[in-house]
Amino acid sequence: MIRVGLVGYGYWGPNLARNFNSNSNCNLVRIADMSDKRRELAQRTYPNVDVVDDPARVTTADDIDIAVIATPVFTHYDLAKAALTYGKHVWVEKPMTSTHEQAIELVDLAESKGLTLMVDHTFLFTGAVMKMKELVDTNELGELYYFDSVRINLGLFQHDINVIWDLAPHDFAIMDYLLGPSARAVTANGSGHFATGLEDVAYVTVFYDNNLMAHFHLNWLSPVKLRRTVIGGSRRMLVWDDLNPEERIKIYDKGMEVETKEGLYRILATPRIGAMHSPVVPNTEALTLEVDYMLSCIANKQKPFNDGAAGARIVAMLEATDMSLRQQGKLVELKH
Amino acid sequence: MIRVGLVGYGYWGPNLARNFNSNSNCNLVRIADMSDKRRELAQRTYPNVDVVDDPARVTTADDIDIAVIATPVFTHYDLAKAALTYGKHVWVEKPMTSTHEQAIELVDLAESKGLTLMVDHTFLFTGAVMKMKELVDTNELGELYYFDSVRINLGLFQHDINVIWDLAPHDFAIMDYLLGPSARAVTANGSGHFATGLEDVAYVTVFYDNNLMAHFHLNWLSPVKLRRTVIGGSRRMLVWDDLNPEERIKIYDKGMEVETKEGLYRILATPRIGAMHSPVVPNTEALTLEVDYMLSCIANKQKPFNDGAAGARIVAMLEATDMSLRQQGKLVELKH
Amino acid sequence: MIRVGLVGYGYWGPNLARNFNSNSNCNLVRIADMSDKRRELAQRTYPNVDVVDDPARVTTADDIDIAVIATPVFTHYDLAKAALTYGKHVWVEKPMTSTHEQAIELVDLAESKGLTLMVDHTFLFTGAVMKMKELVDTNELGELYYFDSVRINLGLFQHDINVIWDLAPHDFAIMDYLLGPSARAVTANGSGHFATGLEDVAYVTVFYDNNLMAHFHLNWLSPVKLRRTVIGGSRRMLVWDDLNPEERIKIYDKGMEVETKEGLYRILATPRIGAMHSPVVPNTEALTLEVDYMLSCIANKQKPFNDGAAGARIVAMLEATDMSLRQQGKLVELKH
Amino acid sequence: MIRVGLVGYGYWGPNLARNFNSNSNCNLVRIADMSDKRRELAQRTYPNVDVVDDPARVTTADDIDIAVIATPVFTHYDLAKAALTYGKHVWVEKPMTSTHEQAIELVDLAESKGLTLMVDHTFLFTGAVMKMKELVDTNELGELYYFDSVRINLGLFQHDINVIWDLAPHDFAIMDYLLGPSARAVTANGSGHFATGLEDVAYVTVFYDNNLMAHFHLNWLSPVKLRRTVIGGSRRMLVWDDLNPEERIKIYDKGMEVETKEGLYRILATPRIGAMHSPVVPNTEALTLEVDYMLSCIANKQKPFNDGAAGARIVAMLEATDMSLRQQGKLVELKH
Asked: How many domains does chain B have?
């Protein structure tokens, strides 16, 4: 049985522990966390798991096959590098690393060792995103006009990354999954209101191939919580409201009918109003599917679609937003 | 009794006609429109009003004291100039003119003739905006952190202006009213998907004094209609949902409590969750109040707060968005 | 051209005046109202219409073909009887009369004179109800299990009728239209909280053929306004939310899958969760269609489906609720 | 340390196990369930707890101080009686028993033995109900006019009880808590659509002292899930929407202003529209507080407010609904 070790039992770690623990194709054998309090909680919840303080007991130990890394971003590179070096498959939280250079180094290391390196972009395993992928792949929406995402709430501030690094990886990864690696340029504006100087409100625009513009509103200072994405297509339009579990995806048979007319008061386009359809979106926990998927990728020596290379592309986009922020929203081209 | 003439009986004209007609301090005496169909409708609704095709019968006629101009934007300057030249007070729809230069010329002309020139920024007369003005003036919200506005719907495309010129004047005028003339720089991104080339989806960021960032999402291609503004302040936060007549304004006693801590896993700020309060917002039709206000300004020789100078500032901002759009979102400074 | 006279320019009268006035197949020639203020308003809005105070100028005059009666309920019988006696077609507001006996007398009188007698159950001409009629007639919903309607708001109290007589006619008429005359028994509970003693909160249950139970929550004392109807069917379920113009009708492919099992903890039925569909519901003003329909019924000597007989059935149901209220919710059988 | 045994690890049992297990003032020592599958799940989750199949190992064992009973309703009486006989405090799920007679017998037995008998009406420990209790006790709402509750969803059918016995105990217990034992009479209508004959849609009206009418809509066949209660008071009105965690309680400063007027068209009452206020409602898990409360009641020999006597009153009301259902909604008086 594949043996799993988890580093980091903070905010997200417990969900990882629960899912790896309940999967019958692997054993959760060890959890490492530097906090006494978190270790105590982990031990109480999993009396049969080995709970330790030293991350090396996961990343370099002989009895671990998969190292799951759920620690602050700036530690990802070192921990993942150690684990790969010691022959472990790696599951790392998003964003993958602090720099694109680090990410590429990990990709190369995993490649050379024949190990699976997977970045946890959980949303890709939700019923909603799988449905959107299907709709895009079958051209149900037609030509894509725009992608508009709002992720705002009164936030749990992170002390080491700004709101873009915290929230945008979700959207960047979803777009990468839906469209493939077609992002071309990035612009970002934002502002921070507290002593850290880190942006807590930000707006990011990404330009993709084929005249597709995507826009992301990311905000830790909103009195209301919204998780809403609108996709405008030439054939249909879609709204994904992740906080509405009963009608998570709505597909609108709406659009514009355009005629060319002349004269002073002429309207050039009129709305086409059609029915709305809300398909069934499975509610299976995404993390459960993702753990299954990783185990299957390892067993079948298959490269996951959310592999290190995909994770690295997201980090490249995040670096580009930093560069744009420093230049008052200047357009930054992405090199691939 | 003050005599009113209206030029333009298209989309908005009927609302103006109804409000000027029902105000007991003025007489609606003439309506001009170039379309046979619109004239017929006007005459049927107002059998006692003189309905004509030539706008000059309003702008240059002896028996008109106020010329109300509700025609396409590119005609505003000529019509308003004629009316002012012939000694009429002018009510002109937003945006005031196609260029800032034209706007300034009209302001100077009105000034020199001692005439009232008022730009119809209707939202300034809604209960919601009046309530927000009160909250800002009394510092109920504290220091303002951001202003985020979403105006999206499946649109009535305009043939002569893009979605920014159509929808952003509302927000620009509201901000100008709330904060005074403190906009410093503008950036805009957008894209158009039809033959006109005019942007139908756009994002505009405006930088105000005191580190206040405002962002506007303007969209004619959205399957859902939203009119929502969020204001984040250091003391309280506010949501204005103009499509929710029962709870149009919500004030949240929410914010972030910030402490400086050290160490790896420390959170620097925690949410402060307080009550929400939705005050009574009067439902009086804004246009009714605005017509009253213009008549009172004329009677008292008082300068309206939505005067030509305010209208000109809005046009300057619109011009800046055009410039930014042409340079891929480059920051454009506003000169005042 | 058919000549129309309107009695009553109160709450609903202006809508009737506007629609009859703008229909090109009839002439609105006279409006009668006993209030000086309402007459003044009517005259200002319709300078070319004859505005009078005496209802007899409509009900008995030679130059009127259709008498439209929009006065308090207790006056309907006398006014409609006079109009029919003087050979006029009659449009009367709901509820048709104060008693079933009066209603039947009017039906007989209209019959004997060959005149059209139509009761204004406006909702039957809305896109939403027409869509529901289509779904019921084509068996899209399957066998009907229940009909649940909520009509609550902070109300405009009526001084002469209770909340059931005010609001239930809408639902009773919709059910009569959807199902035909199949109501069998009625039970009602309610309470009044003010000096009039009239019920301002009430619950009505109606039993129809085929084990169908309908329930109506009627309330003038609610802090929120709701207009929502749920229909449960064996094949599909439907929600009609009349305050949500964008998604007025939602059809759910949901139901229960029932298996017979044995044993202590066995569940007998599991939910079947399918997609939701919101069809396009035309937004044409119902009253506009209803005025057209009456004119067409008169022209073609066709009996309207919302004729006096239908109106009389609704009054019989209202009388039954009164009887049930007086006996603490006792079941009252309906005789047809 | 107080030792806890749980009987029943089905739908609700895992929540009880989790809360008793994590409370530091008691030990969860044993779980009994007749299903192999459920026992396996329990053992996996709690490797250190004794998992058995025989309920007597909880109800009659020497090493158990509190027996927690979370089994089908018809088994409650026997299990609770055994546990009390063997000197254990009892926590029993709602509804307490199948008959009022059984409930009274348990109350007497607990009384004679000096044991704590508590019925799990979880909602009484939610922030929302605690806030409502505070508002009623301080007369913030004024005189109560009505209480209207809607609990509908596409249901998990129970094989042994109808929808009233499943869902109404929540509301009956909340009313009993808010108002004390003041229910006077009950009427119920309902219908069942499947082979069991058990009602799956039902409407219950309860009459309380002081002209207060309460109404409950209970439905397992609804395409949408609602958990909404409206309370109308003379001073304020309240909406509790349990599915809206951000604005669970809304208090409306609304009501009717009543004047006595004369004449045909006079309105007797006009709405008073005031602000809406949504207070902070703590999100602490109700079960956590309830477990604490039971332990504290036992320690302090204090009678819980949700004791057997309160549970028995709820069962008496449920029995009355059965009687009313069998007589087509006849009013059934409650004897206390």
From this structure: 2
Chain A neighbours (≥3 Cβ pairs under 8 A) are B, C, D
- The full DSSP string for D79-116 is HHHHHHHTT-EEEEESS--SSHHHHHHHHHHHHHHT--
**Judged by CB atoms within 8 Å, which residues 136-195 of B form the interface with D?**
none
Q: Which of D47, D224, D225 sits opposite A48 (nearest CB)?
A: D47
C303 inside domain = no
Q: Output phi, psi for A104, to 5 deg.
A: -65, -40
Residue-wise pLDDT tens digits, D277-324 = 999 999 999 999 999 999 999 999 999 999 999 999 999 999 999 999
- Contact: C223, D232; criterion CB under 8 Å: yes
Please tell me if residue C300 touches chain B, with a CB cutoff of 8 Å: no
CA distance from start to end of chain C: 39
Separation in Å, CA of D115 to nearest CA in chain A: 31
Residue A156 and residue A26 share a domain? no
- The phi and psi torsions of A193 (rounded to 5 degrees) equal -125, 5
What is the DSSP secondary structure assignment for residue D246, as one 8-state letter?
Answer: G
Range of the domain at D163: 124-284+316-333
Nearest C-alpha of chain A: how many angstroms from C296?
29
Same domain? C95 vs C178: no
For C183-231, the pLDDT digits (tens) are 999 999 999 998 778 999 999 999 999 889 999 999 999 999 999 999 9
In chain A, what residues touch D47 (CB-CB under 8 Å)?
A: 47-48
CATH of the domain at A129: 3.30.360.10
Looking at CA atoms only, how far is residue D254 from chain C in angstroms?
6
Q: Same domain for B58 and B94?
A: yes
Closest CA to D176 of D315, D330, D290: D315
Contacts with C246 from chain B: Cβ below 8 Å: 224-225
CB atoms within 10 A of CB C111: 15
pLDDT tens string for chain C (336 positions)?
999 999 999 999 999 999 999 999 999 999 999 999 999 999 999 999 999 999 999 999 999 999 999 999 999 999 999 999 999 999 999 999 999 999 999 999 999 999 999 999 999 999 999 999 999 999 999 999 999 999 999 986 677 899 999 999 999 999 999 999 999 999 999 999 987 789 999 999 999 998 899 999 999 999 999 999 999 999 999 999 999 999 999 999 999 887 665 554 455 678 889 999 999 999 999 999 999 999 999 999 999 999 999 999 999 999 999 999 999 999 999 976
Question: What does DSSP assign to residue A307?
Answer: B
What's the burial of C246, exposed, middle or buried (CB within 10 Å: 0-12/13-18/19+)?
middle
The conformation of residue C307, written as its DSSP 8-state character, comes to B
Residues B146 and B91 occupy one common structural domain: no
Q: Is C8 left (phi over 0), alpha (psi -120 to 50) or beta?
A: left
Q: Does the beta carbon of A134 lie under 8 angstroms from any beta carbon of chain C? A: no
Instruction: Answer whether C234 sits within 8 Å of D155, measured CB to CB.
Output: no
CB contacts < 8 A, A to D, total 7
Residue type present at position A311: G
Minimal CA–CA distance to C248: which of C229, C232, C261, C231?
A: C229
For A280, name the nearest residue in chain C, comparing CA atoms only: C275
Residues within 8 A of B (CB atoms), C 207-236 only: 224-225
C-beta separation of C215 from C148 below 8 A: yes
In degrees, to the nearest 5, what angle opens at C-alpha D97 toward C-alphas D92 and D99? 165
How far away is chain D from the Cα of A6, in angstroms, using its nearest Cα?
Answer: 19
- Other C-beta atoms within 10 Å of A138: how many? 8
Q: Distance between CA atoms of C73 and C77, rounded to whole angstroms?
A: 8
In three-state secondary structure terms, C179 is helix
